[in-house]
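Lecture notes, unit on protein representations.

Consider one protein chain, 300 amino acids long.
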Amino acid sequence: MAAKNEAAPEKFSIGDTAGPYDTGDLLTPLGELANSHLDLGSLLMPVVEGGQVTVEMSATHEPEAVYLVTPVGRIGMHAFAAPRSGGMWREVVRELAESLRADGAQTAIEDGHWGREVIARVPDGSHRFIGVDGPRWMVRCVASGPAESEVQLAQLARAVLAETVVRRGNEPQPPRELLPIVLPPVLAEQVSAAQQQMSQEAVEATGVDPETGSFPSQPLSNAPTARPEPEAEIVPGGAMMQSAAATVYSETPDRAEEPTGDAYAEVAEESVTDADEATDESAASPSRGSAMSRFRKRRR
């Protein structure tokens, strides 16, 4: 008797169902996401129409996080290795809530589309943590913004998370290990220029001679090599254009360099206006059912 064939796993295109998606389950070729998604190696994060990409640098001038600054707040995403059994987010929720309370934040837990969400309210606004368990990975979304935009930011963060794609890879990783961020070439160039500027400013401040090598510039030599950028038509306001115009700042930025509170709306609303003026009927859509499009429909 012939062995019974196992059913092939179902595959999806972006927008067919709510993500986040695993690359193994994705029907949409990754090359088609060049303008709609920011490829960060371990995950592909959809950009927001009219938004702004920012890169946070560590104290050692290395890329630490990538954010989308939107009209209602800032959204960041990280992917982690997880056990095959899943359920890691349930453990993280408890630990995260306890840690936030210990830091003085008012915390609450709400039920969202994927399960529990942790909200930390602070004097300047709120931070919402949304986690999703996938096949051997967990993705965590953090949405930060002013208190008056909390509901709108939560809707937008969920829409961005629903179109996120995770590239876990086959290498063994211990649970909770942060999957590496690999910057796309155009964004890596922005970061490299910022690294050189930060190093030069530090040299000038300390009086160290750069020729002695005691305070060398660190141009991404320890970071994974970025993959060649796919050939694609550059869409106005899309991922490649936003990457080229990214803002890079240190982990202790000046308040003028990192928009907070009302500045989120002020900075991003200007970008939205510019993007609307530049868009015409013949322009290619950044993505089918893009996160910002869904968000705008909810607000109507």
